[in-house]
Specification:
It contains 13 helices and 23 strands. It has 443 residues and is α+β, with helices and mostly antiparallel strands.
Length: 443
């Protein structure tokens, strides 16, 4: 039997060898490409997860920086984060554009959809379009109720009811006059300004910590407030909720500014009588303060309204709903605080304890502190931090002591590092809030 041999010339052998090598290199290249794509997708997924975490934790300043440096500029999910940032930095129309684009592209079971609708509802609130805000909250309940926790369902139902009660109320408008000082110097707590309505004058405190303005029933009657006969549920600095009614003041004046269609929560006088006998007439809350556009709180108790935005610089103030947020620095770390001109004393919250736990527990001991708000008094375990040094806008300030709560009372104390009140603000000569440029300045 003859044996057959395959004989290749040297030229053909080299060609075959080259083909085999090329095939091997192509396989290796394909593997490397697949690996790099998978790695890039993994990196993108991690980046997106980080962005969502910052958003959920209400760290809007950090989110802004992270979105600006995000590499996937064509990623449709950026629409969600750009909408969130526009909402936070008081650009509701821009926010609505991004969020509506995101909602239009999202699939029905997108886990971020309920958050997108929540921010969209808040955009309507910021534009005083109460009916559409209520409808959007109802949409959340209709479409995503099975995903929500019981307390979230309650909050959405309260919001839908609250803004539904204002459906027929015209949008708030503010007509600004010339820049002027709104009140006289005072040694009293806070910043009280004269309010004129119905040929009556009453002095009310400016309270950035109040999401809605508030009046005692007797004062509301004097000022000519129209009762809307709707009951709602609201909270205060404590975890206690109360059941007030709603009222509308068609026209009121603060200094040279005229406010049209101001909404107030109305409470019985007894509910605004505190244990020490102090009776609160009412407060001017965030919606009206923001409507004044640019306002300065001075250390001598005076308030100045200019209405003219400086329009310069990067925003240093953001909003979580109607809570004003800004950053301070403590031990070389940037922390987000809430601004509350209605609170006499500043307070630190649980996130501060979490970040500086070793220092706090080694230097201070706990004691029970009483917190009084609308609706009652609550006892909370707290540390008393001595010689508290912090800086805002690059300006340093100290407090002999400040309370650090160990219990989460509400969402504010869950996410923010503290609530900055009058005791810290009045250590500065002036604090200015500019709601057009979204900047806060301390002098």
């Amino acid at each position: 039997m003859r044996q057959r041999f395959m004989i290749y010339s040297g030229k053909n052998c080299c060609r075959k060898a080259r083909l085999e090598v090329c095939s091997l290199l192509m396989c290796i290249g394909a593997i490397l490409v697949c690996s790099s794509v998978a790695l890039a997708q993994s990196d993108k997924s991690n980046e997106i997860s980080k962005l969502k975490q910052l958003c959920d934790q209400k760290k809007y300043f950090e989110l802004r920086d992270a979105v600006e440096s995000y590499r996937g500029k064509r990623d449709a999910r950026l629409l969600f984060f750009r909408g969130a940032l526009a909402n936070s930095f008081n650009e509701p129309r821009v926010s609505m554009k991004y969020l509506n684009q995101y909602i239009a592209r999202a699939v029905a079971d997108d886990e971020w959809l309920s958050d997108a609708y929540t921010m969209l509802a808040d955009d309507f609130v910021k534009m005083y379009d109460y009916g559409r805000a209520s409808d959007t909250y109802r949409t959340i309940l209709d479409r995503f109720k099975q995903r929500l926790k019981p307390d979230e369902i309650e909050d959405y139902e309260n919001s839908a009811t609250f803004y539904g009660s204002l459906r027929e109320v015209p949008r708030q408008r503010v007509t600004l006059g010339q820049a002027a000082r709104l009140n006289e110097p005072s040694s009293e707590a806070g910043w009280n300004v004269p309010v004129w309505a119905n040929n009556q004058r009453v002095s009310l405190g400016l309270d950035t910590g109040a999401n809605v303005s508030l009046l005692a029933k007797s004062v509301a009657e004097r000022l000519g407030v129209k009762m809307l006969n709707k009951s709602i549920s609201v909270g205060s600095i404590t975890s206690i909720k109360v059941q007030p009614k709603l009222g509308l003041l068609p026209t009121m004046k603060i200094g040279n500014a005229t406010i049209h269609n101001a909404v107030f929560i109305i409470l019985d006088d007894e509910a605004l009588t505190f244990p020490d006998g102090f009776v609160l007439k009412g407060v001017i809350g965030f919606p009206i303060i923001a409507g004044l556009r640019k306002i300065s709180f001075n250390g001598d108790g005076t308030v100045s309204g200019s209405g003219r935005s400086s329009g310069r610089g990067r925003p240093s103030m953001s909003l979580d709903g109607r809570n004003i947020l800004f950053q301070g620095e403590y031990e070389n770390k940037r922390l987000t605080f809430m601004l509350d001109t209605g609170a006499e004393r500043s307070v630190l919250y649980a996130p501060f304890l979490h970040d500086f736990e070793d220092e706090i527990r080694s230097k201070y001991s706990q004691r029970t502190e009483k917190f009084t708000g609308v609706g009652g008094t609550e006892e909370v375990p707290a540390y008393i931090v001595k010689d508290f040094a912090v800086s805002f806008d690059g300006k340093s300030v100290r407090l002999p002591e400040i309370r650090l709560l160990t219990k989460v009372l509400n969402d504010n104390s869950k996410f923010y590092y503290g609530n900055v009140g009058q005791d810290l603000i009045k250590r500065f000569h002036r604090m200015t809030l500019d709601f057009d440029s979204m900047r806060i300045a301390f002098e």
